[in-house]
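Email to the structure team, subject: Phosphoribosylamine--glycine ligase model.

Hi all, the expression group asked for a predicted structure before they design truncation constructs. Nothing fancy, just the tokens so they can compare against earlier work. One-line instruction: predict Phosphoribosylamine--glycine ligase, return tokens.
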Amino acid sequence: MRVLVIGSGAREHALLLALRRDPQVTGLAIAPGNAGTARVAEQRDVDIASGDEVVALARDVRADLVVIGPEVPLVLGVADAVRAAGIACFGPSAAAARIEGSKAFAKDVMSAAGVSTAVSEIVDNPALLDAALDRFGPPNGDPAWVVKDDRLAAGKGVVVTPDREVARAHAAGLLEAGHPVLLESYLDGPEVSLFCVVDDHTVVPLLPAQDFKRVGDGDTGPNTGGMGAYAPLPWLPEDVHRSIVADIVEPVAAELARRGCPFSGLLYVGLAITAKGPAVVEFNCRFGDPETQAVLALLESPLGQLLHAAATGVLADFGELRWSDGAAVAVVLAAENYPGRPRVGDVIVGSEAEGVLHAGTARRQDGEIVSSGGRVLSVVGTGADLAAARAAAYHILDSIRLPGSHFRSDIGLAAAEGRIRV
Ligand code: GLY
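Reply from the structure team: attached below.
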């Protein structure tokens, strides 16, 4: 089977490495990719938002399966175009991708499916902002305001703050830019990311993971696209894991099918394990980054066959997934000033080591690998337990040099020390 992966992040690099371990995968191509993915797959260029271009490329590389990584092409219907061309595609239709692309749609689906989630309100008129802010946050017993960009914002449109002025300024800025604002009640409790391979009513969960969205140690500083992740979650009871699948993901998949937009692809549920049980923070329509880097490091089942089964409607026959024992930790190395405007163009030393996945990297004409984005690398360590996986990841990071770069030193630390309780 020849597989074409669309995207250019560490998530796509992780997908390529896992696909390469599948004995039935005989060819791998990536577009547009980065300096790291070029070493493991045939690298091509494409406008990822253009269904016509992706279809033409899939034909050119004779792909039997196209795997679409990022949300933007999915929301724009690129998977529909690939399927319409008669090529198997792992990724939902535009109609089903609204579970990520439209927060109003997601809330409506969750409500119809009876799924617990934050109370929310969309504000699109600046004149109504103050009254809406009064209905959320500390005046209502919540520790903080949760203010989100209602459009796709790669995780960076979220501000969680106990300071009304900060919340107001973020919301006002979004409204001024023409983006509707989503206000949400605060969900208190440790967060879980659960990725499920879904094909209509069949739901196959991967290992649960946790990601770290704030830029600084101890969950300080602004939100990012994700600074690190670990899997599995030693503190998550098995019955809670099962109930997330049975009481949240399966009903949502069934509701999407009932509405005539069955989901086929990766359904990602982000939850908080509150005192009242799991509550949904968000659904996404694709693999999450950086959790994918940790989760796929432990997958033993053949990924190409799994994704192909979902893409061709035979996922129900695939059977149980197999996983390595132990744990995996992914730590993101970010460029100076990320999540603000990152410094780019610096030479990176040590980026070709085992366990180093590339995101914002490019190869310069002189052959040097340089930074080209905010999140530059994802370094993945595995081990018999979380402490060993952390040690492995930070050991690799020690040998990487990028001027001005930064990373969190506490990825998976609280869990490794047994400090997370539900
Ligand atoms: N891990 C956050 C995201 O992928 O959206």
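The longest helix spans residues 238-258. Residues 155, 211, 226, 284, 288-289, 291 surround glycine (CB under 6 Å). Ping us if the truncation boundaries need rechecking.
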